[in-house]
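The pair is quoted verbatim underneath.

:::
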Amino acid sequence: MVSIEGSPSYPGSSYIDTPPPSSARISRSMGRSMRTVRSKIFQTEFANDSCATPRNSSCSFDLEDFLGMSGSYSDLYCSSDISAELRQLATAPDHGIHFEPEPSSEFLQRERLYSEIIASVATEFFQPTVKICVDELQSTSPVVKRSAAGKLRLLAKSRSDNRALIGDSGAIPALIPLLICSDPASQEQAATALLNLSLHERNRPLITNAGAVKSLIHALKTGTAVSKQNAACALLNLAQSDETKLSIGACGAIPPLVSLLVSGSSRGKKDALATLYKLCSVRLNKQRAVRAGAVRALVAEKDRGLAEKIMAVLSSLSGTELGRKAIVEEGGIAALLEAIESGTDKGKEFAVWTLLQLCRDNADNIGFVLREWGIPPPLLTLSLKGTSKAKNKAKVLIRYLKEPELEASSSSDP
């Protein structure tokens, strides 16, 4: 058997101290890390979700719109193992809790070496190690449980076969209590381990059925920055069906996601946007998001690097009357026109689509736009120089805006 730990052996176990030669690498199913697959997650989601459609109109917004979003949108979401978390854990403060010395401190300081070992060894050799970790998660020692969660997290980082092995081992129910424990470092390790495990499709029902959703939401509300980000991404991975999306929304995930969007780091904001977008593909969650203040947070966000993603989420929320009303009340029309003027091509498409939904069959919104901007010059420019989809939407919108003028002109004729 192979251990991933360089510290003293556990009873009944044997370990290797050096990685096998590179020439002896064993063929296995590597799987993909979250860093590799996050773009696939969004491509799949954008390809399958229906876009917000105006009342009684067909959705002409080809979901290639979402597939083609900028690389930065799909390339910066939901990384498992960010910010050298093992090194953070090795030096984490005890938060007033005095633990016995960590038995696997060398493990925490040798991530690169153990990653090479993990990549070089057949999965079956890890079975005893995984079992030991599952047993350690039942320990009364917080530091032993934290260390076990860290080992499982690393094992699940980039190999799908390891994720399957860990899922089958019974580790998932044992990790969940750490999400609500009082030690932030343990919570962080558990959230990241579950994120990594959620990349394996077969593990997702195991995670949800074990009751992880409410505990992940607890970590999303109370955890460190990394815990919040990775809890959000784990929820993103679990939200594969409308039923699960509704369940996650009903458990209260949307308000803390909005809070993460408001006060999180740049990375946290991106993760919040991604998860909100996915959850809001179902109508009830759109309404929950609007009531939680999502529109206000989206309109107020000034990070230009997030503008395209914000337009995508606003476009989704505008699929309900409640969302359209909130966008107008929160000053969203000005934000949409700004995106039409200076956003990316995709951002312009999302913005003009949303503005079209606001103005379709709504004389009040048309009148507001005309009073404040007339026929907005950026909209005229877009109708001539935008992408084909943006031009088509802009031309329809301009026609809507001109109809009241034509009616007024005809009514004044003798």
Summary: The longest helix spans residues 388-412. Residues 1-30, 35-77, 79-105, 406-414 have pLDDT under 50 and may be disordered. The CA atoms of residues 234 and 367 lie 44 Å apart.
